[in-house]
Amino acid sequence: MGKREFDPVTLEILWRRLISIVDESDSAVARTAFSSLLRDAHDYTCMFTDHRGRELAQGTFATPGQSGAMALGIKNLVTKLPPETYKPGDIFITNDPWALAGHLNDVCVLSPIFYKNKLVAFTACVFHHSDIGGRVSSDNHDVFEEGLFIPLVKLYDGGVLNHSLLEMIRWNVRTPDEVIGDIRSQIAANYVCSEKICQMLKEYEMDDLDDLAEQIINRTERSIREEIEKIPDGIYRAEGRIEQMRGQEEVVIKAAVEIKESDVIVDLSGSSPQVNWGGNVVYNFTYAYVFMAIKSMFGPDIPNNEGCARPIQLIAPEGSVVNCRFPAAVAARLVIGHYITEIIYRALAQVVPNKVIAASGGTPAQMNVFYGRRRDGRPWHSVIIRGGGMGASAISDGNYVYIFPANGANTPIEIFESDTPLLVERRELIPDSGGPGKMKGGLGQREVFKVPDDEYAPLPPVNLGIQAGRHLLPPEGLFGGKPGAKAQLLVNGVPGNPFGLTQLKPGDVVTIDAAGGGGYGDPLERDPEMVEQDVLEGYVTIERAREDYGVVIDPETLKVNWEATANLRKSLKGSSLS
Q1: Torsional sign, CA 48, 49, 53, 55
Q2: How far apart are CA 11 and CA 32, in angstroms?
Q3: Nearest in space to 293 (alpha carbons), one of 316, 331, 266
Q4: Are the beta carbons of 294 and 264 closer than 8 angstroms?
Q5: Cα(407)–Cα(63) distance, rounded to whole angstroms?
Q6: Alpha carbon distances (Å) from 271 to 239, 286, 364
Q7: Using one digit for the tens of pLDDT, what is the confidence trace for 365-419?
Q8: What separation in angstroms does the CA of 345 have from each of 266, 348, 398, 456, 522?
């Protein structure tokens, strides 16, 4: 049978159908997952590929770190075995950080899809499991301390469950019912995707996805290359510094981004060597956030698939912090990996200033891992993600408490309190935390937790492991914008260790501040009426309106004093030139 060509309308319908299938698979997770990290914070990604492992579609709300790493990893995994070795009913599982998404908590369940006894596609989902055993801390020294390592193995062989494997997983985690329940949710998500794809093939009288995949991927590649070609050829450089654990030198990420016709070559040579704690990043995860940067600038509205990645090349020296060697510790890879997008933005800001944003307080996302035992001795384990202020752009203020570039959602307080024995005393925006600029950085957030101290039924000690950043180096502004406020960890009012494991006792109070986003442009060019509105909303104080923006707000009426503002701004601009 010859190659089947799809007219533009049919191609678009089928393309959207594929995306909707993955979104339906995605919805199945939200309905069946046990962990709030998945159900409420949406820290998972569903996708499917053609029979060669080339990505065709992913969930609309996929997380970039997982989806970008999967786009590389799934292709490598499915070609490890000859196509004839797959059979209906097979389901594979792995959490190999170097094969996929960069740390042990990201567990992948992979299923071949058969139609008319022919292998036509693969469907996969990666869940960030709250618990994978191990020592839950960023200051581990190798991957063996970080939990259970599952190589690529069959969870189901021709439809028959490998009970021994499931039991092995069960006995290596603290909360086995939750972990096994979430694995079953992954199986359900893959089943939904498989069934719906086979329905589509039957409905459109297609024997496979090959011709459709080729046209979708090629069309996508052409579209994104057309956008890249609009940028002047050249090599654009930037350097980023990332705080490390106390007593260690800052990590340096060096990026040289070359635009060469319709290709983008990102070279991270010269970046720091891998570190002796869990911030190391595997190649796939680094690539994911390089891809995130390029895709968001040159093709934000194009659905993700193999075609988006074809123009992008990455050079990341092995043994560096952006391409670490086994068995490096990698559990906290977000603490360094999330910065990659920001550094690519910084490099290209000089040539596409309207396509980038300033540094974000949610870079890296703040991951707080609480675990311990209840009063009756039962173990509990909960992970919550918190975003900071997003960086401002040329045309808009940064979003507040946003998880960027990682995507995901802030876990609701009510869910956290129902899942754990802890109390949340406060959760609020932090005034003045957004970096001043013509466009203001988004505000960070403060959350205050308390370990209950009931003297008649004391709670056993609670462990807190944090994966975060911005405690020493604030999110930078762009084009004259000022930095956002730094992050902060306080235990009973005393600064804590944001890189290690903290043990809390009954009555302890923990304050965790997420950083604000960087500003964009000169703060003295911000519209005074926008500053007035910021003050009315409580986002900026009267004092900082005057100091940062040169805007005088009447404390009685909360209105702009236009004459005083004009004089103050004139004075401030004059002093900055002298």
Answers
A1: negative
A2: 32
A3: 266
A4: yes
A5: 5
A6: 9, 12, 18
A7: 888 999 999 888 888 999 898 899 999 999 999 999 989 998 888 888 999 999 9
A8: 12, 5, 15, 55, 19
